[in-house]
Structure formats: C-alpha cells, structure tokens
Amino acid sequence: MEWEELDNLDDIDDVIEGLVDLEEDVTNLIPKRYLRDIDNPLEFYSEDEFRMRFRFSKDNVVNILHPLVEDLLKKPDQRGLPLPSIQKLMLALRFYATGNIQQVSGDLHGVSQATAGGIVHTISGLLAERTKDFVKLPATEADCRKAMRWFYEIRGFPGVVACVDGTHIPIKNPGGVRPEIYRNRHGWFSLNVQVSAGANMEIVDVSCRRGGSFHDATIFEASGLRRDFEEKRMHQGLLLGDNGYPCLPYLFTPLGNPQSMAETRYNRAHISTRNVVERTLGVWKRRFRCLTKTLETSLNHSLSIILATTVLYNISRRSNDELPEDRVSLGSARVSSKCCSYWPP
C-alpha cells in the first residue's frame, strides 16, 4: 500500500490493515524445514529398522520419550531451518545408539556436526534432570518387601533389595588440574560408574562423578547409596556386591575360600543373585553404544549423557521395549517389571 499523510480515522485503519498484511508477508518469508521421507525416520523406516537405529519403538518415542522433552526445548528462533523437537530427540537417540556424532549429522541432511552436538547436549541435560524421577531405590517398606520377594525367587537369597557393581565409561582426557585421577589401571581415561540394579534389571541407583582411578570401595564409601543403607532407609534390606566391596552388616560379598557345603551354597546363591547387576550393565551398554566408545565431550556433558541413558534404559525396561540382542541377558527378568511399583506413573 502507499504510505501517505493521514487525514482521518479511515486512513489510520488502512495503516493498521497494511501492517497486519506486512506481518503476514514477513512470516511467510521465514524459511521452514520440509522433511523429506529420508529425513523423517518415523515415516522412512520400518518398525524393526527404526528400533535398531534408535533403540526404541516408534510408539514409545512419540508417546513416552517426546513428551519428556517437548515442552522444555527452547522455541526455535527465526534463523536457518529449525528442527522439530521430535527430530531433535531422534538425533540424540541416534547418538546414544552409535556414539558417533559424525554419523548422526550425516544421517540428517543440512545438520552440521556442531548443531548435532548442541542438540545432543541439550537433550542429554533435559533427560539427566529427570534421573531422580526414573532412577530410584524402593522408598517404602512395602516396596522393599516386594523387591526382597523378587530377588528371593532368583536363587533363594533372602532380604536382598539391590545389587551393586562398577563399570568404566571411556572419556577423553578431561584436562584441568588433576586429569590423572580419570586414568584407570588399564591406562585410559574413564569414569568409574557405580550402578545398583533391582531384581527386574532396572537401574535403581547410579553414581558417575568419580574418575577411573578410584576403586569401587572408595566410590561406595562416598556414595548416597551407602548413606541410604547406613541410615536404614532400606528397611533392613541387603545389598550384594563382589569382592571389590567391603563386607558390612548390610553389604554381603562372596566368601573367598568356602570351607563347608553351607558356605558353598551361600556363594552359589550370592553369585547367581548378584549376576543381575552384571547383566543390567551389559544390556544398558549394548543398547546405548555411546557408553562403550570414548565420549569426546566435556566432562559435564559426559556426565549428562550417562545419566540420560540410565533414564532411557529404565524407560525401556518399564515399557518392555526390548531389542533382539537383549533377550538372552534379560532371561527371566523380562516379565518382572511389574514389581516396581515405586516407579513414576
């Protein structure tokens, strides 16, 4: 419209109408991302292909995982071609599945490695903030009794509410003042992550801030897990660990040299029951292969990635979202997720 001197109210109305039209024109000029089939994994891949690439079913990605982060992601600005939140989530899931940011950015045309890395960082932080909602020990006496019953059904070991073990997650040299505390006895940099598992192979406690040079017993001594048992929050429940942990009134370890049939039976029951946490670690790290490759991220970002994958792992357990390679390790634990009434609804 022509801009001219305003003589009456009709002219003002014309100006307002013109501004509205101008705003609509500018909005229409903002570039939009139109996903091709290959850029929309939900449409492009079959259910089995999607599950193998992103480690979750399509239904669980859309209806369980996406709502966890959708409202928390920042609204896209007017620069470039903003990705939809669902695609940001799938980009992060692809990274957790592969550990290769170059491969992830290559999967999505027009997304640089820097952009992909930033998205993974954001999604990991949002999921890590939900750790306390999805990773928790039994809170009530009824929950503890239920956990004890399920553990007892494994090999007849009474009173157990969780099993604990440590695993090393490779990281790059973190730099800083004392990088050597992150170098483990094998000579590479890592975080020694303490994980406790429930009877159905869910992760009920995780501590991941200690470097690879720290011994399992040292990590346990400084952990909230020890305080929970010391302060009897587990309602007389027991914790099982291997010989890397101290033998305590609530922490049972194997006997080094059994001398009787009773001691032999104890060791057999202990090993069979504690095997739950070893299988849990195996399934967790196979599902999210970024945990088996060196995390080329900052230390804080690496911590967020580890916590994010524990949240995702527990969601997969509760929703029975199994992968084919999980089934041998899961074994009888496959149908036991109903025991965890202390999970978030």
- Give helix and strand order, one letter per element, not per position: HHHHHHHHHEEEHHEEHHH
Q: Overall 3D geometry?
A: globular
Report low-confidence residues grouped into runs of 5 or more: 1-6, 23-38, 334-345
Please give the alpha-carbon distance between the first and last residues: 57 Å
Strand content: 5-15%
Structural class: alpha/beta
**How many β strands by DSSP?**
5
Radius of gyration, in angstroms, nearest whole number:
26 Å
The amount of helix comes to 40-55%
The biggest beta sheet is recorded as: 5 strands, mixed
Structurally, the number of domains stands at: 2
Number of helices: 14
> Mean pLDDT, rounded to whole units?
86
Major sheet: order of its strands? 3-2-1-4-5
Pfam family, one: DDE_Tnp_4
GO molecular function, one term: metal ion binding
Cofactor: a divalent metal cation
Subcellular location: Nucleus
List keywords for this structure.
metal ion binding, globular, 345 residues, single chain, 5-stranded mixed β-sheet, HARBI1-like, metal-binding, alpha/beta
Structural description of this entry:
GO terms for molecular function: hydrolase activity; metal ion binding; nuclease activity. InterPro entries: HARBI1-like, HARBI1_dom. Belongs to the HARBI1 family. The chain has 345 residues and is α/β, with parallel strands linked by helices. The chain folds into two domains: 92 residues, no CATH class; 188 residues, no CATH class. Helices cover 48% and strands 8% of the residues. It contains 14 helices and five strands. It has a five-stranded mixed sheet, with helices on both faces. Strand 2 and strand 3 form a beta hairpin. It is globular, with a radius of gyration of 26 Å. The N terminus and C terminus are likely disordered.
